[in-house]
Design brief:
Largest sheet: 6 strands, antiparallel
Radius of gyration: 20 Å
Strand content: 15-25%
Structural class: alpha+beta
Shape: globular
Order of helices and strands: HEEHHEEEEHHHHH
Number of helices: 8
Helix content: 40-55%
Distance between the termini: 27 Å
Length: 207
Amino acid sequence: HPGSDFRRNFLSLIQLDVEGLRNLDPLRLEPGSGINFIVGPNASGKTSLLEAIYLLGRGRSFRTSQAGQMVRFGESALTVAGRVLTPEGESQVLGLKMARGRREIHVGGRRVQSSAFLMKAFPLLVIQPSGIALLEGSPKLRRNFLDFGVFHDDPAFLDYWRRYMRALNHRNSLLRRGNTRELAPWTHEMARYGIMLHQARCGYLDR
């Protein structure tokens, strides 16, 4: 078991409720305060349980981008809810409902529009065999991995990233249409927030 000083720095999942996900029967899980192991025979639902935890923290699956593949046969939607204990000892309720073409996210009893709220409330990473792609795959994977850490370290990072991507997408659209007269303001905007992103990443990496 990790000591109390170790646990104090991290958020803990203290309750998980799952319904309508793959082959799992409706369940409630109350993890222990230390390290938890999930064991069982093949095809018993171990990975689906991990998927439920991941859904609660990311609003999406690490196995598929198709909600229809996750919803249990005969069900109209899947629901994952949980209670997270913060390092300060306060608990917060999170919830996610997914159906084919529809998603609802709730944090602290309030409906929110973005999975960024889940990521802030319950940060987590999944480590699996395909993780080798982080070393061997495209640079985009490594940037995403780095950005996930910066997102939790710098409250302004998400705004920088959104503004940068907006400028980049507008600029690329103009280039595709051959419209170079309107490039200058978007190039300036992209450079401005690109520098902010770079500084935030470097600061996080140094720390």
